[in-house]
Specification:
With 244 residues, this protein is α/β, with parallel strands linked by helices. The chain is 43% helix and 15% strand. It is built from seven helices and seven strands.
């Protein structure tokens, strides 16, 4: 149980981010759900009605330094500490490489890679002051097994893996762990459609991963894997080790 622990999740209004938030709440943690979408407040209220911990929603833009800092300041005021952060906010344009526009590439890099960098930088400063903390970033199976059409997205997600390793080494002796979880084929409101259906036959387990399943991995890496840092953990139904 994670009673008296505080978890912060970005991109938490729906999908995997919401599932991660609920997984923390189920374990008794206090949870701050953040998202650029104001509906995050409704998402948090729904969880607060089901679980006993303190649960709040906060509008936060991961691409804006002031928004990130004011959000973290507010969370520290409301909760008093931050034990775990999951940097989950992201998205991307999926097109064949030569069809990507500069805007497609820049938008994906800015949201996924630059947004994660900005959040990590601010979070680590908080953790250095309080003397502890655990960060888990959201990676992507496509960084390992690429079905095509992911040039910008993979550039961003591979960058997140590299930043995870770099920050983990920089702060391993400061009681700060930094890891990454790469979900498999997980259906969410943002990615339902033919794209995933085409890839499904290659998954050895022959099914999609649920958001609840991968959320448990995030919570474990954040809270239980206390000697793990700098790692990217795949939860992918066996795709990365073979096609069947």
């Amino acid at each position: 149980m994670l009673k008296d622990k505080v978890a912060v999740v970005t991109g938490a209004a729906q999908g995997i981010g919401f599932a991660i938030s609920e997984a923390f709440a189920k374990q008794g943690a206090d949870v701050a759900l953040t998202d650029y979408n104001p509906k995050v407040s409704d998402a948090a209220a729904g969880l607060a009605a089901k679980y006993p911990g303190k649960i709040k929603g906060l509008v936060l833009n991961v691409m804006d330094n002031d928004s990130i800092q004011s959000g973290l300041d507010q969370i520290m005021t409301d909760f008093g500490r931050i034990d775990y952060v999951v940097n989950n906010a992201g998205g991307g344009v999926l097109k064949p490489f030569a069809e990507l526009s500069d805007k497609d590439f820049d938008d994906t890099i800015n949201l996924d890679l630059r947004g994660t960098f900005k959040c990590m930088r601010a979070e680590i400063k908080v953790f250095l002051k309080q003397g502890f903390g655990s960060i888990v970033n959201t990676g992507a199976l496509g960084s390992i097994y690429n079905p095509g059409g992911m040039g910008a997205y993979n550039a961003a997600k591979n960058g997140i893996m590299g930043m995870t390793q770099a920050a983990a080494v920089d702060y391993a002796d400061k009681n700060i762990r930094v890891n990454c979880v790469a979900p498999g084929l997980t259906k969410t409101p943002l990615n339902e459609g033919g794209f995933l259906d085409k890839i499904l036959p290659t998954v050895p387990m022959k099914r999609y991963e649920t958001a609840d399943e991968v959320a448990k991995v995030f919570v474990f890496v954040a809270s239980e894997a206390t000697f793990m840092t700098g790692q990217t953990i795949l939860s992918d139904g066996g795709v990365s080790v073979g096609l069947k």
